[in-house]
Write a structure and sequence with these properties.
With 229 residues, this protein is an alpha/beta fold. It contains 8 helices and 6 strands, in the order ααβαβαβαααβββα. It has one domain: Rossmann fold, CATH 3.40.50. It holds the Pfam family PAPS_reduct.
Length: 229
C-alpha cells in the first residue's frame, strides 16, 4: 500500500514511466496502485474513459457532478452509462439546490459571477466527493485547448492532494472518434447537434467553424476552465 506522503513522487515517476503507455495500461496501473481508492470522473460528454476503465476495472466508481444546470441529454447519458457499462455511477450534488443558491446569491449567478457559481456547484462538491479516493481519472486531452497542452498522463494534483490520471491525454480527437466508433461508446447526443464540448446549459453554446473545441464554454467571459482542472 502506498503511503500518502509518497504520492507526489509516485505520481511524477508514473507520469514519466507511463508517458508512452496505452490508456488501458495506465488505468491498470492505477487500479493496481490504488485499488478502491481510485475513481473515474466523467462530465458525460462521452463515456470513453468510463468505457476504457470498465474493461480493466469492472465495477469501477464513475463520479458525475450534477450541478443542477445540466442539459437533459447529459443526465440521459449518465443514466445510459449506468445501465450499459460495468461501472458504479456516483452522482455528486452541490450543497444548495439552484433555488437555494438563487435565494442566497440572486438569480443567474452564472451570468454575473461564473467563477463563484463554478466554485459552489463544481469545485467544492468534487473536492468533498474525492475525499474517498487517493487518485482520480479524467478525460483531459492535450489537443483540446492551449491550457490543456501540458497535461501529464499521471500527475500530482497539489490543490486536492490527489494523483490525477489522464489516460487519454495523448489522444487526438481522431483517436477518440475512432475508439467511439470501434466500441460503440455512448456519447452525449448534443455532440451531434453542433456542440463540441458540453457543460452546464447556461454556459455552453454551439461552436462556430474555426473555433477550438472549448470555445463554446463561458463564451463572452475570459474564462476557459471551471476550476476543476
Ligand atoms: Fe454555474 Fe455555469 Fe459553472 Fe455550471 S458552468 S457551475 S452554471 S458558472
Amino acid at each position: 500500500m502506498t503511503h500518502a506522503t509518497d504520492l507526489p513522487r509516485l505520481a511524477e515517476r508514473a507520469g514519466r514511466d507511463l508517458e508512452d503507455a496505452d490508456p488501458l495500461d495506465i488505468l491498470s496501473w492505477a487500479a493496481e496502485t490504488f485499488g478502491p481508492r481510485f475513481c473515474v470522473t466523467s462530465s458525460m460528454e462521452d463515456a470513453v474513459v468510463a468505457h476504457l476503465a470498465s474493461r480493466v476495472i469492472p465495477g469501477v466508481d464513475v463520479v458525475f457532478l450534477d450541478t443542477g444546470y445540466h442539459f437533459p441529454e447529459t443526465i440521459g447519458t449518465r443514466d445510459a452509462v449506468a445501465a450499459v457499462l460495468d461501472v458504479n455511477v456516483i452522482t455528486l450534488t452541490p450543497r444548495q439546490t439552484v433555488a437555494e443558491q438563487d435565494a442566497e446569491y440572486g438569480p443567474k449567478l452564472h451570468d454575473r459571477d461564473p467563477d463563484l457559481c463554478c466554485a459552489l456547484r463544481k469545485v467544492k462538491p468534487l473536492e468533498e466527493g474525492l475525499t474517498a479516493y487517493d487518485a482520480w481519472a479524467t478525460g483531459l486531452r492535450r489537443d483540446e485547448s492551449p491550457t490543456r497542452a501540458g497535461t501529464p498522463v499521471v500527475g500530482w494534483d497539489a490543490r486536492r492532494r490527489k494523483v490525477k490520471v489522464s489516460p487519454i491525454a495523448r489522444w487526438t480527437q481522431d483517436d477518440v472518434d475512432t475508439y467511439i466508433t470501434e466500441h460503440a461508446v455512448l456519447t452525449n447526443p448534443l455532440l451531434m447537434d453542433g456542440y463540441t464540448s458540453v457543460g452546464c446549459a447556461p454556459c455552453t453554446r454551439r461552436v462556430l467553424a474555426g473555433e477550438d473545441a472549448r470555445a463554446g464554454r463561458w463564451a463572452g467571459f475570459g474564462k476557459t476552465e471551471c476550476g476543476l482542472h
